Amino acid sequence: MAGRITDLDTDTAAAHQLFASLDAMEGLPPAPAAPVKPDRFPYEGALRRVYPGLIVAATIGIAATWLSTHYSAPVMLYALLLGMAFHFLHEEGACIAGIEFSSKAILRVGVALLGARITAEQIMSLGPWPILLVVTGVITTILFGALLAKRLGLSRNFGVLTGGAVAICGASAALAVASVLPKTRDSERDTILTVVTVTALSTIAMIVYPLLSTALGFSHTQAGIFIGGTIHDVAQVVGAGYSISNETGDTATYVKLLRVAMLVPVVFSIALLVRRGSPANAGAAPKLPTFLIGFVALVVINSLGFLPKPVADFAGELSRWCLVTAISALGMKTSFKALAAVGWKPVGLMVAETLWIGTLVLIAVKSLV
Length: 369
Description:
Elements: H1 2-24, H2 44-71, H3 75-85, H4 96-113, H5 120-124, H6 128-151, H7 156-167, H8 171-178, H9 187-215, H10 220-230, H11 234-242, H12 246-261, H13 263-277, H14 290-303, H15 309-332, H16 336-340, H17 345-368
Helix pairs in contact: 2-3, 2-4, 2-15, 3-15, 4-14, 4-15, 6-7, 6-17, 7-8, 7-9, 7-17, 8-9, 9-10, 9-11, 9-17, 10-11, 10-12, 10-17, 11-12
């Protein structure tokens, strides 16, 4: 038996050598190149390149949505974790172009479509104090994040990224802010880490903050302002607010949408500062990112009543699907090993930012509302 195995191994090695020698022979005609077919419609070639990765990202998004529906956990977190399990698809193969397309172009479409959820009437119905509170909370949280990141030995850009995610609208804000920050070797890893942590913190806040509001004896309006002004993601704000009462849920949703509206001035300001800080762009006129123009246009159209409710609802649902697909693609671009190497400081930074905006809004609600 041992001899047979040895003979078989020898024959196999000889066969490999034979084929290797045949491959090395000169004078063999080269294999004919596949004919290049002309595009039958515009961008056919581009679509052929991106569709494998796009389909994979969308499929992971569908799986994440199913899990979220059946197990009551944040869909963004599922999309990230499932995407990271398929990280090998971004290392080589036909899916790379589609994954890149999903993490960038699809992301921008999703952020732009968020504007269909907001009207000027919703914002103005809150009155001056909640508006001032939201603006103050957003600005101070981002500044706090940038300063604390520097003290912790992290980059200031990472502090701006996490501060924007905590202050505005969680994962969506993280993606929007990351799209205008300078690109570095760790940019995508930092974005994924921010989304994972801010989603986890938002889920904890969704459970704890309604209990805290009840324990402090907040009215429905006070509880709505506190929940809408502090919890990171829109879905968790809605869940926490309506778990108390319909009035609290409505108030929390409007306050949260005001924070989402802050995405435009914040992202534009960051893009302007980044552009001025780059020697290559010194003196150049600032350009508003296209997806922010779309965001503002949809807010204006919806505020003027030109956007029918079914269309606005469809745009909101499409926005959610785009963002879930983009998160899945970002997950595929990041490895668990890269995340594990960052240590405790980034997580500590986001916890501190969450405590900052929570304490600020809590004091304001107790004192002013």
